[in-house]
Amino acid sequence: MALAATELTEIEQMLASSDATAQAYIELRQRFPHLAWIRCDASDVTEAPYRSFEAFDLHLLDCADHCAQITDDPARATGIVLARRAATS
């Protein structure tokens, strides 16, 4: 099932909040179980993020074909790669 615009907005709002933590991944997976979810470190992803937040980079995942790939087209997104950014001091 594709990512709806309202879902993307809700995901972005959650990640933009000042209290977004490692728990965000669990909460988002529970709230949007129809999406594919991948969690990793930001350094593991070479593609530019769709959006960047203080704690996370958000990448859209297109799983429609045989191979999953990062996309910048929300209409093709069927999942999310949530890449944890290194803490800054």
Overview of the structural elements:
- The protein is 24% helix and 27% strand.
- With 89 residues, it is of the alpha+beta class.
- Strands 1, 2, 3, 4 and 5 form a 5-stranded mixed beta sheet that branches.
- The chain is globular, with a radius of gyration of 12 Å.
- 22% of the residues are buried.
Mean pLDDT value: 89
Backbone CA Rg = 12 Å
Q: Choose one word for the global shape.
A: globular
Largest sheet: 5 strands, mixed
- Order of SSEs: HHEEEEE
* Share in β-strands: 25-35%
**Count of runs of 4 or more consecutive helical residues:** 2
Helix content: 10-25%
- By secondary-structure content and strand pairing, the structural class works out as alpha+beta
Give the strand tally: 5
Low-confidence stretches: none
Distance between the termini: 39 Å
Q: How would you describe this structure in keywords?
A:
89 residues, alpha+beta, globular
Short description:
This protein is of the alpha+beta class. The protein has helices spanning 5-16, 23-31, and strands at residues 36-41, 51-52, 56-62, 69-71, 79-84. The model has no long low-confidence stretch (mean pLDDT 89).
